[in-house]
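Weekend entry, working from home. Most of the wet-lab plans are on hold until the incubator is repaired, so I used the time to fold the two sequences that have been sitting in the queue since the last round of cloning. Logging both here for the record. First:
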Amino acid sequence: MPADMATGPSEETGAGDLLRVEGLRTHFFTSAGVVRAVDGVSFTIGPGERLGLVGESGSGKSVTALSILRLVREPGRIVAGRVSLRGEDLLTKPEKAMRRIRGGRISMIFQDPANYLDPMFTAGDAIAEAITLHADVGRREARRQALALLRELKVPSPDDMIDAYPFQLSGGMCQRVLIAMAIATRPELLIADEATSGLDVTVQASILRTLHQLAEESGTAMLITTHSMPVVRKACTRTIVMYCGRIVEQAPTAQLLARPLHPYTRALLESMPAIEHRGRPLASIRGEPPRPDRELKGCAFAPRCPIARPGCAEHQPPLLEVEPGRFSACPYLRADDVGRAA
């Protein structure tokens, strides 16, 4: 294992990784103190893999995603780590080179499409611009490709929608425009940052099917950040659980949902509505996350953990492989303790 074992199981992967994140630390330097939003995170994504990054709001999911593309704004700063795309360190590249990678080799779908679509641009204009920025084509050809993308995404009446402005579209349709912009260049990696948050379940399911189809047909790998366990169940082959900027569990999704090996993961699953729990009060996680500007010596989840020991708050537990392909940062909860099937 590496020297900083709490950063994650990056050493378990081979040379064929598409993306490799090692010891990533992104801090925000505020008047109240240093907020360690991402505090030593390591993981890999293989070609065509769909990796889920799940946790409560404030766990560091979105900051991790933004750090990969170096989109963290002041007072945030990446202070340590390495982010490699097929062996190329993205954190040391000049900004001009990063602009070619963003939207080209790596694309991102943001959470709130209304904030990322220019109200003066039609859907067709927005998609065509994404195409012309990364391909040597004219506006007419870019519009033709934009229309083809809308048809590929099974958008109703694409010939009408291509000339619609954002205010004329629903949230789900705006999200599809962002997806079309993101996949226009057939990126190697697509980052979906809470891409289905705020959408009704029917639209959410449709978008997840679209993303799955994209991965199957084009081999695009995906990093999907979400606070929703149902989303990772439907969309992800492997899942990482984050809490307070750290990885607390990592496993193939089906195994993680069936047998969580960290108390925080188990608490998240128990707080989900389930048909077998009909008639019972919905469980909740007691307490609050620690203040983000306070440095943590031990396990960040210890104050809320039902099985915490006296030493949990004093020593940060390493992320260890407890079963083949499964990693947990809790030495006390094991598969024998878990009887709930998600």
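Second, folded right after the first finished:
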Amino acid sequence: MRTPQVSSGMENVVTGSSRNAHGAGQSGVAHVAMLGMFPPPTTGAAKNNLILYETLLARGVETTQIRTSVSGLAHKRNLAYHVRRALRNGWVTLKLLVEGRRAGIFYMVPDAGLGSYYSLIHMIVATGLFSSVLIHHRSFRYIDSPSRAARLMTTWARARVTHVFLSPEMAARFQEQYGPVAFMIATNAHFVADQIAEPSIRSPGPIRIGHLSNLCRDKGFFLVAAVFEGLVERGLDVELWLAGPVIEPDVDETIKQLSRTHGDRVHYVGPLSGASKVAFYRNLDVFLFPTQHTQEAQPNVIYEALAAGIPVYATSRGCISEMLSGSCDSAATSNENYLSLTMSAISKLDLSDEIVVARKRAIIEFLEVECAESKKQYEALLISLGAD
């Protein structure tokens, strides 16, 4: 793992001399303008933004939600989608001009790809109006592939903006691309802290492999299906459990074909949330997440599976290698090796009660350490947003 050249401690957050504490206005009470995606549609970043927004409100921080979301997911775009995005971002710019008069804190989750130019415009407007600016990075796209918009965004007001990254490796790699910045680390682990439970033994039966996501090619659905069919061909007693909305017609047809071929070995339970989603993870023996998504950063679903004590086999995009680096029996591998290595690992999986409990306990203990550190990081972020 690379070592970041700038410490992630709060001492490195650059604060302009003209700013009031926590970006407070004349009344001394912080006001936060939060710009980013919020459900619907539901994505990991949108859900995390909503949780942060609701937490700030619960802490008594006056917070305005400025939505960049439009109907439709990033995995399924067309001309109408881009027209809606352009209109939405024009409205966002006007909204910023109004909110900036309150001289508070601007918090933004920037877009990637062509959408990063919208984010650049929003940041330029915000640095001229708000007393404090935080940019929370939730995409690896412009880290894996240098972006002119991201470079301009970074250099425009380098000394006035605090960056928030999901991991030390993410911070290091961003700075390799765009130069040193003031930053904080705030991982997503704390979002699953209340889902951690004592290891349990499920009822006997076949090996249960699971996948939960927006079901599409980008998120690895077809690799999951290939792993399942490969294991069946090897003669393993295995079931496939799928959850989440179907995004692409090819996915829907493949699920139907798998069900026709393999009968009750295939279970599609649709979108899940809350207790039903927690129960889904706890019913599994292994969780698969071979994502190909170019914006993948630190997927909530991986932490959710680890919170149930379930080993995870994923591709090594974004922060995923860091997320799994200390988790028992979990692995992140390249796209090329995913199929063979995952099938081999599942074929050797020991499901004896004693081994299962020990494995789950090790995974949960690993995650508890992550959650404790993440809670401290999240508190530091909340303080920087005015939540004393």
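Plan for Monday: verify the second prediction. Residues 6 and 180 are 7 Å apart (CA to CA).
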